[in-house]
Amino acid sequence: MNDVQHHDALAFSARVLGALFYFAPDSALAEPLVAAFSDCEWATQWPYPVNHLETLSAGFTAKSNESHSEAWQRLFIGPSALPSPPWGSVWLDRENVLFGESTLALRQWMRDNQIAFDVQQNEPEDHFGTLLMLAAWLVENDRYEACEQLLAWHLLPWANRFISEFIDKAGDPFYTALGQLTQQTLGHWQSHLLIPVADKKLYR
């Protein structure tokens, strides 16, 4: 895979996965993606090799005791404690809090790189889905060095732990398969990084 192919693959996969982790499955942005995965259309379009393709496809199409919307609500909104919280500072901060020091460091990095964060509510910038979509945006705007920094300094140091717990605790076949595909995809991204992933202590 040459640089152009890698950049296209990263942008496409980051935008798709980011939307599925961030937006409700019945939203305008996520619903077509959920349908594509549920119909196995994704398998011929995914830009990276996929291990255990049949198992993943079976997970995306399996019946569940709850709807996709109910599962997404339980995994990302609550009201109960989230099984695998999708914010970086929960994993990187000693107190496992939102808006921790790692969030402030990300916020400063975004200011330094003139990256605006536009949300409708007071929300941490380090949501897993948001960071994936930001990575896609950086690549789409030819800001490859900034994307590398985002991945190596602010996402990958905690993302693998988050995804491992997400897979273990998702309790829903669609989202378990999504976690497994994401785990493989992050591995492909990391194998192409030109800078080392920061070694940060995890507190969860």
Write the layout of secondary structure elements.
Elements: H1 3-22, H2 31-38, H3 53-61, H4 68-76, H5 88-92, H6 101-112, H7 128-140, H8 144-169, H9 173-192
Salient structural properties:
204 residues; mainly alpha; 9 helices
Question: Overview of this structure, please?
Answer:
The chain has about 200 residues and is mainly alpha-helical. The protein is built from nine helices and no strands. Helix 1 runs antiparallel to helix 7 (about 130-140), helix 1 (about 5-20) runs antiparallel to helix 9 and helix 3 (about 55-60) crosses helix 9. It starts with a helix and ends in a 12-residue tail after the last helix. The mean pLDDT is about 95.
Describe the structure concisely for a colleague.
This protein has 204 residues and is mainly alpha-helical. The protein is built from 9 helices and no strands.
Q: Give the helix proportion (percent range).
A: 55-70%
Largest sheet, in brief, is: none
- The ordered H/E elements are HHHHHHHHH
Morphology call: globular
Total helical elements: 9
Uncertain residue segments: none
Average pLDDT figure: 94
Secondary-structure class:
mainly alpha
By DSSP, the count of extended strands is 0
Our measurement of the CA-to-CA distance between the termini, rounded to an integer number of angstroms, reads: 35 Å
